[in-house]
Structures are given as C-alpha cells and as structure tokens.
Amino acid sequence: MKKIGLALGSGGARGLAHITIFEAFEELGISPSIISGTSVGAVIGTAIAAGFSTKEIKESIYNKLLSKTGNFWEVFKNSDFKKILDFVDVEIKPGGILKGEKFLSYLSEEIGVEKFEELKIPLSVVATNLYTREQAVFDSGDLYSAVKASYSLPGIFTPVTRNKYLYVDGGLVNPLPFDIIKEKCDVVIGINVLAKSKFKTHTEMPPAYEVLFSTFQIMQNSILSEKLKHVQPDILINTDIEDVRVFEFMKAEYIYKESKKYKSELKKKLDKILK
Fold first, then answer.
1. From residue 207, how far is each of 93, 210, 214, 245 by CA, in Å?
2. Under a CB-based contact definition with an 8 Å cutoff, are residues 70 and 78 in contact?
3. Residue 101: its pLDDT value, please?
4. What is the pLDDT of residues 155-166, one digit of tens each?
C-alpha cells in the first residue's frame, strides 16, 4: 500500500472545503499516512488526524456555529456577541485584537487530545517565527499552542509564545505545506483553498478588514505560485470558491456544496494512483 501524504492549505473560511474534499479518502476506504496543515488547514488536519470522520466534523461545526444564519461580520454588527464569544475572546492589547483562546478551548474539548503523539495520524503544523522570519514546523509536544500559532493572523490574533519565541500564522511562509512531508510518503496531495476572487469593481471601496485579509491572500498566492515553480505535489487540487471572505464561516453549507466537484477530482486521481 502506498504511503499517502495530505497537505491542507490556509484560506480562512474556504478551508471548510478541506472537509468535503477529504470525503474522497473515506469513499475509497483509505487514510493518509501523514498530514500537514497551515492555518485553517492545521485546524481541519488536527480533527482528521485525531480520527474524526467528515460527518462528525461537519456536525460539530453546525452545532457550534451554524445554528443561526448570517455571516461572521453581520453577527458582530448586530451585536449578537454570544455566538462569537463562544469562539474568541476580545482583548485590545499589543500583538492583536483577539486572543483566540476560547476557540482553542473549544477545539481541545471537541478533539480530546493534548499532544501530537496522541493523534492517530502523524501531523505536522506550520507557523512563522516572528523574530527569525522563518518557517517553524511543529510535530511533537503540545498540540494546541502549535495550532493556534498556525492560525494567528497578524494584527488579529495575538502571537503564540512557544520555546521562548513568538509565532504567527504559517501562511506568511508556507500556505500549502506539501513540501515538508514530501520525503515521508510515496504520494503527496496538496489541497489549495486560497481565494482567487477579486473585488466586484475597481472603484469599490471595501471595509478596512477586507483590505487587510485580501492583502494577506494576495501575498500567500504569490508565495505558493513561486514555490510551485520549483517543487510540486504529486496531486494538486486547486479550488476556486467564489464570494467567500476570510471569516465567512457561516457560508459553510455553500462551501461544502461548491467543494463536491473537487472531491470528485481528487477521488478520480487517487483511484488512478492506487490502481
């Protein structure tokens, strides 16, 4: 049996596509030998590596986040803080406006393991060392400090202190970390969920937060584009899910639906390799 590595990329709410696309593995009755993830890819990768099915992951997301319609920022504007505060705890302080500890507690409670070594599938998580400006790969020890570091979007979430260094979002250095597991498996698959959509017009003035998030996505696309000129995964699934902003997790059902064609694409390519 071939050893298959699965790399799950960053991309905010679009990262929910990872869940549907992973159904290709379940339908073929196979499991990856190793998983790597950056940002939202690290979060979804943790759940998969812990042994959760895609059905269980989707049910958890629905129960905790989707029981009331409306996108993330509309919830903020409507002053319905209860649902948001179940996941994040606002704190205006140096480093970022959100600590993000409540989401981390939720993740820990749902998954039920504390260390990388307790996972059923080996996992590697990418973050960025804020001071050395270099990639950091975590695959042992405390799981959740590594995952939080990986999704700590600069200026939004406060950096994570680990090993006497500060770490922020792994998308700054490696938005699709297939290269870090390429030598550990026979076949490596990369799932790219970065945004490709543009603003509706050239003159439309977007909110400040959208400018920040879009700039971050532009940078990640540039990093990945240059990286792919030098090294490629054996299977690369490029998604293009339109009209989803970084924090619009409320659009989960739409994202799942739009992801089905990419699941079919991966399933065909996987099936061909396995045969």
1. 22, 5, 11, 12
2. yes
3. 64
4. 778 899 998 999
Cβ atoms < 10 Å from Cβ of 275: 5
* Count of beta carbons in the 10 Å neighbourhood of residue 141: 13
CA–CA distance from 213 to each of 48, 78, 168 (Å)?
A: 26, 22, 15
Rounded CA separation 207/157 (Å): 19
Spell out the alpha helix ranges (H) of the chain. Answer: 17-28, 40-49, 54-65, 72-77, 81-85, 101-111, 143-151, 208-228, 252-274
Q: pTM above 0.90?
A: no
pLDDT, one tens digit per residue, over 170-180 is 999 999 999 99
d(C-alpha 171, C-alpha 220), whole Å: 6
Sequence-ordered alpha helix ranges (H) in 160-251: 208-228
CA-to-CA distance for 190 and 194, rounded, in angstroms? 12
